[in-house]
UniProtKB/TrEMBL annotation:
Gene name of this polypeptide: glyA
Pathway linked to the protein: Amino-acid biosynthesis; glycine biosynthesis; glycine from L-serine: step 1/1
Known role: Catalyzes the reversible interconversion of serine and glycine with a modified folate serving as the one-carbon carrier. Also exhibits a pteridine-independent aldolase activity toward beta-hydroxyamino acids, producing glycine and aldehydes, via a retro-aldol mechanism.
Cofactor(s) essential for the protein: pyridoxal 5'-phosphate
GO cellular component: cytoplasm
Family membership noted in the UniProt record: Belongs to the SHMT family.
An individual GO BP term: tetrahydrofolate interconversion
Positions of (6S)-5,6,7,8-tetrahydrofolate binding: G120, H121, I122, E249
Compartment annotation: Cytoplasm
EC identifiers of the protein: 2.1.2.-
Organism, as annotated: Candidatus Nitrosocosmicus franklandianus
Highest taxon listed in the record's lineage: Archaea
Keywords tagged on the record: Amino-acid biosynthesis, Cytoplasm, Methyltransferase, One-carbon metabolism, Pyridoxal phosphate, Transferase
The protein's name in its UniProt record: Serine hydroxymethyltransferase
């Protein structure tokens, strides 16, 4: 095999991926589909340049237009999230969290965050699990007490736990709200005063729900008392992959230093350009989109529950976000169900649920799956389509129908949802492959 053939094969595999997604129902809660305008920005020459530092104070020449775009991006982030300060340079949500750890704690300090089965992210995790907070910044991690019934952090138990930690001489330096399995708002406003009285810095990790917050349809962490909010730019927010931090002005300097030089050198300028376009779309379409996302998530949850699925959070109406969690242990485990659905072009992920670790389960074979509707909503699906998706899932998971029966129906169903909605361009196909070379 020569290099040219290998190149052709690589590009062919990428095209095959595009074709597959054209024909699939994408339900990964942390994913979305960016608009053609975002994809154009990402394909630009910005991605080949360096611009270390802050706009106007760069370490490199050649940044005339890059500075203008980055300023627009930061301005938009401040407007969309009603924040005094924004830094759009974090190259991912993990890097945004690392910047907060670096700016507001020292190795050996303690952070309180959610455990993974109760929704926490690996970037909040302990060293022994190779979690970023423990492994990279040397933080000790304690977990928020969790109410399984309410599927959120337990306020009174958290106060007791923190008082005990203080009495033991291990007060938390940072309280990290937010998470990856995230059905209901976290009690930021209920705990902010208590935490601030004890000099605990509050960060809200809005990686998953940033697009809902941008649309004004979830909690509003900065108004509820969070000192800063970190996020990914590509989950319910519909930008390219990356991170953003917003905060009060008084935290601007430590955050800027923690991003550069602390945690980045190149900051993926094509993605900054894409984030700017995505935030401009948020101004225009963010509210309508966020409302429909939440309606769709609720409808999918109710439809699955009607078929007999054990959807978590029943007492509270299953979800107030873009995602739902289903205990599928009656039909297999999360790992095998994920595979069965993937064969039918229904793409979601297995999920550790509260209590799984204690029951001896692990991330390969957890009891649940997580289902998210950010991408199908962006493709124009509404409540009726959620009922159809629930029926497809039932056919695969409960009825154990054959792939040859379900797959053609899934492909047929998807044919009507090939454009990105809530965007200024409505002509280009969502998964259109951008061809630059002739091979
Ligand atoms: C996805 C996620 C992250 C990581 O974001 P990346 O952009 O993938 O680095 C951080 N925190 C939470 C809660 C997440 O769900």
């Amino acid at each position: 095999m020569n290099g040219k053939e290998i190149q052709r094969d690589i590009l062919k595999l990428i095209r095959e991926h595009h074709d597959w997604f054209n024909n699939s129902i994408p339900l990964i809660a942390s994913e979305n589909i960016p608009s053609p305008a975002v994809r154009e920005a990402v394909a630009s020459d910005f991605g080949n340049r360096y611009a270390e530092g802050w706009p106007g104070e760069r370490v490199y020449a050649g940044c005339t237009y890059i500075d203008k775009v980055e300023n627009i991006c930061n301005d938009l982030a401040r407007v969309v999230f009603k924040a005094e300060f924004a830094d759009c340079r974090a190259t991912s949500g993990v890097v945004a969290n690392l910047a907060i750890y670096s700016a507001f704690s020292n190795p050996g300090d303690t952070m309180i965050a959610s455990s993974i089965p109760t929704g926490g992210h690996i970037s909040h995790g302990k060293k022994e699990h190779s979690g970023t907070a423990g492994l990279v910044h040397g933080l000790m991690i304690e977990h928020f007490p969790f109410s399984k019934e309410n599927m959120t952090i337990d306020v009174e138990e958290t106060k007791k736990k923190i008082n005990n930690m203080i009495n033991d001489g291990r007060p938390p330096k940072i309280a990290m709200f937010g998470g990856s399995l995230f059905l209901f708002p976290h009690p930021v406003k209920e705990l902010a005063e208590f935490l601030h009285e004890k000099n605990i810095y509050i960060n809200y990790d809005g990686a998953h729900v940033a697009g809902l917050i941008a649309g004004g349809q979830f909690q509003d962490p900065l108004r509820e008392g969070a000192d800063s909010m970190t996020m990914s730019s590509h989950k319910t927010l519909w930008g390219p992959q990356g991170g953003i931090i917003v905060s009060a002005e008084k935290y601007a300097e430590p955050i800027k230093k923690a991003i550069f030089p602390g945690n980045t050198s190149s900051h993926h300028l094509h993605h900054v350009a894409g984030k700017a376009v995505a935030l401009a779309e948020s101004l225009e379409f963010g509210q309508d989109y966020a409302k429909q996302v939440i309606k769709n998530a609720k409808m999918l949850a109710y439809s699955l529950a009607n078929y007999g699925f054990k959807v978590l959070g029943e007492k509270r109406g299953y979800t107030e976000s873009h995602q739902l969690a289903v205990d599928v242990s009656n039909y297999g485990d999360g790992g095998t169900i994920e595979k069965e659905l993937e064969r039918c072009n229904i793409i979601l992920n297995r999920q550790l649920l509260p209590g799984d670790i204690k029951e001896g389960r692990n991330y390969l074979h957890p009891s649940g799956v997580r289902i998210g509707v950010p991408e199908v909503t962006r493709l124009g699906m509404k409540e009726n389509e959620m009922q159809e998706i629930a029926t497809f899932i039932k056919k695969v998971v409960i009825d154990k129908q054959d792939v040859s029966k379900v797959l053609p129906k899934v492909i047929e169903f998807k044919k009507d949802f090939q454009k990105v909605h809530y965007a200024f361009d409505d002509k280009t196909s969502a998964y259109q492959y951008i061809q630059l070379v002739n091979i």
